[in-house]
Amino acid sequence: MITLGILALVLLDLFARFEPRVAVSILLSGLTLGAIYFLVSSGLSLIFGLMDVLNFAHGVLFMAGAYIGYAFYASGFGQSMDSNLRFLIAILVGGASGALLGGIMEFALIRPLYQRPIYQVLLTLGLTFVGTEIIKAIWGTVGYFMETPKFFNTNSPNCPSPSLLDFLADNCSSILILGRPFPSYRLFVILFGVLVFVGMITLLQKTRIGIVIRAGVQDAEMVQALGVNVRRVFTGVFALGTGLAGMGGVIAAPIIGVNLAMGQEFLLQGFIAVVIGGMGSLVGATAGALLLGLARAIGDQLVLSGLQLPWMEQALSLSPSIARASTVLIMALVLLVRPAGLFGKKD
Amino acid sequence: MSLKQPLLSLTGVNTYIGQSHILQGVDLIVPAGHVTALLGRNGAGKTTTLRSIMGLWRPRSGQIVFDGARLDGLPTHEIAARGLGYVPEHRAIFRDLSVFENLQIAERKRGDLDRALPKLHTLFPDLKRFESRAGRHLSGGQQQMLAIARAMVADNRLLLIDEPSEGLAPIIVGAIVEALKQLKGQMTVLLVEQNFRMAAALSDFYCVLDDGHTVRAGEMAELTSDAALTARLLGAG
Known about the structure:
The structure holds 2 protein chains of 2 kinds.
Chain A: H1 2-16, H2 20-51, H3 58-74, H4 76-79, H5 83-110, H6 117-139, H7 164-170, E1 174-177, E2 180-183, H8 184-206, H9 208-225, H10 230-256, H11 262-277, H12 282-305, H13 320-337
Antiparallel strand pairs in A: 1-2
Chain B: E1 8-17, E2 20-30, E3 35-39, H1 46-54, E4 61-66, E5 69-70, H2 76-81, E6 84-87, H3 99-104, H4 112-123, H5 125-129, H6 140-153, E7 158-162, H7 170-183, E8 188-192, H8 196-202, E9 205-210, E10 213-219, H9 220-224, H10 227-234
Parallel strand pairs in B: 3-8, 3-9, 6-7, 7-8
Antiparallel strand pairs in B: 1-2, 1-4, 4-5, 9-10
């Protein structure tokens, strides 16, 4: 609790240094990034919590989801369709491919290795390389740019939309928020993240399978001794987690593009978010993801504007790598204060 | 079922944990409708026997027969589904789940809990009072009651209870003994208990293990009437 309070104060203080409209755009950028990190970290955290598997292949499934979703979106097969519908289906295709690949992976490769954690790490790490090479073989080394669908990308003389309501009518690519334009697609990403979060919480708190998952995170053996086939739940949760990652890949694609570097980048951030939030806790994975997203957005802004502290005559200019390093720094700080992470559930 | 047809029987069960040969030929008979105490010193193999029955450790050889069918080699969830309720050492309550959810998860068929709940609430009134409290906020005694209740939600015919008195104050142990006494005659129980007085008060039959072997088995009355024999078998009165 104290750690959370301090973190909140530090964030508030950082925001207070910017003028309000800048602060709001930073906040929204941070939430956008946080939502994408969340789609990766929530699955990582559930999979680790329930099965004790550190799934290094999560990043490559995120990337596979992006490529497969993009391939559908850009293919002739879908061209006759309305771009909004095509985009929605692309998200589902990305999610389904993530879930299918992840499910098969758990069932065929990880299942025999539950007693041997080191082998699992080697296996999932190895699959990362294999997966990357397969993607390279199919789609080549050049990246792709995924256009946002029409709903977020219509030109009209009114653009950027002066308000959210106007946006619903004219579908501009940007909306004015406190007078500053903000990409409308990014607001959708935030909304999508919120919806997935609510869905996951409902699943975990309100359904029988959710009770089994929460109990299994603590003691899978006891759940089994009550007559539940835990192995089947393992496969399901693995597929759910990798499915979210696959979906996340498609959601992220219009912002970061579709390329061979995205898997590693988001795997790393996802792991950092999980470690900050505490292994095995969905709320923790969410908090970690948001914290990272905000830190990154603030870092990027500081790199642009330079850091000026009261005693400095001239603003200190920061290199962009500071923004990237900030996430690791936060992880180190949180772990120093709370070794189990903010909401750690594992013993 | 008569005594000649036990509900559960173990014959020559050998279980290894890693390289250690823990159970070295355990023979055990649990007569239907009675409470059988599994006794023995620390490390004699009592907990390992229960875990072997549940398939949490796979016996390397020997037979485990429940109601005429082999259990050994089956996965744990299928063993449980045959009608075995397991109350492990240290209780293994799900700390992040409420009392109600701890019971709910033990349902094997829809309606199990609705059917069992009135009886469980009479047996353990605290579980009704603290229905929405998280497992981690229960006292040790309440956790023990919840663990026993959880094993009774599904339609189980045999309860395996490991050290129910462990770490509890004498007055709480008394309450648990009273609850278990009410179960006598309704359910078959295999009870592991260090506290001999508690085991003697509850059990009809006993089986003593030492160093992973069955040393002696019989009717509890034979032990309670012969202090010298008890001392020789268990090293204490």
